[in-house]
Amino acid sequence: MKTILLTGATGFLGAEVYSFLKDRNHNIIPLVRRKSGLKGEIEIDLCANNLKSSISNLPHFDALVHLAAYIDFSTDFNPEHFCANSLATNDLALLAAVRNAHFIFTSTVAVYGKKTDYIDENTSVNPDTPYALSKWLGEEFLRRVCPTYTILRLAGIYGRNGPEHLGLNKAISGALRGEAPVLAGSGSGKRNYIFVKDAAAAITCVLENKITGTYLTSGSEVLSIREMLDIICEEFLPQAKIKHQEGFSETNQIMKNSPRLPRTRAFKEALKSL
């Protein structure tokens, strides 16, 4: 059993990770921005000016899983990007280094840029939005200050009640309410998004096995957006048809999943578990 400091514990991925770790009998210390009712939670605002002093007196922990993030894919600069994703990561990494703890940081496929169609371990980073840049800076801070770290560059994450900045989550939520998916554009762009439970399993795997380094974390199945929406209809609304509206043409963005991480399930298999 390990004692784990967990940021973002009430978020979409964080709640799943919390459940995974609890089921495996780890001792979890959730860091939350506001009270949520989680056992043992500690209220800390990661964007507060006094963050360093606030976290200096935290209890003992063996590992720090940093999931809290400010996500915004616009091209507009927002200081919160860098406060939550970069500066807070640096302060937490310094604390983990002092405590000799394993730091696990969830980064993003966005660090490779919007137009990179195939991504493997040799692909160069090209953070072309403020969000992507803030995550890449968080990675760099972590590498420089914390000897024992894992960076997981995650593809888009889908599941029940997932955040709707990923259009697939909007389609899933709508289908569960009986609403047909809406397809903007041709839907020809291919992706290998990752199911939220598989993302949580990857985090648990690197934590328990102390796997360090930087890893690409995605689903195993490559599908076009149109194919995913067809499967959603097939599973939840067999009599429905996809609704179409005008949209931009989509490029592919396919990421090679690291072989060191656990198996991920196919899209239809994931939907059947919802």
UniProtKB/TrEMBL annotation:
What InterPro entries does this protein map onto? Epimerase_deHydtase, Lipid_A_modif_metabolic_enz, NAD(P)-bd_dom_sf
Residue ranges of the NAD-dependent epimerase/dehydratase domain?
4-209
Record-linked SUPFAM superfamilies:
NAD(P)-binding Rossmann-fold domains
User: What protein name is recorded for this chain?
Assistant: NAD-dependent epimerase/dehydratase domain-containing protein
**What does the record give as the organism's lineage?**
Bacteria, Candidatus Niyogiibacteriota
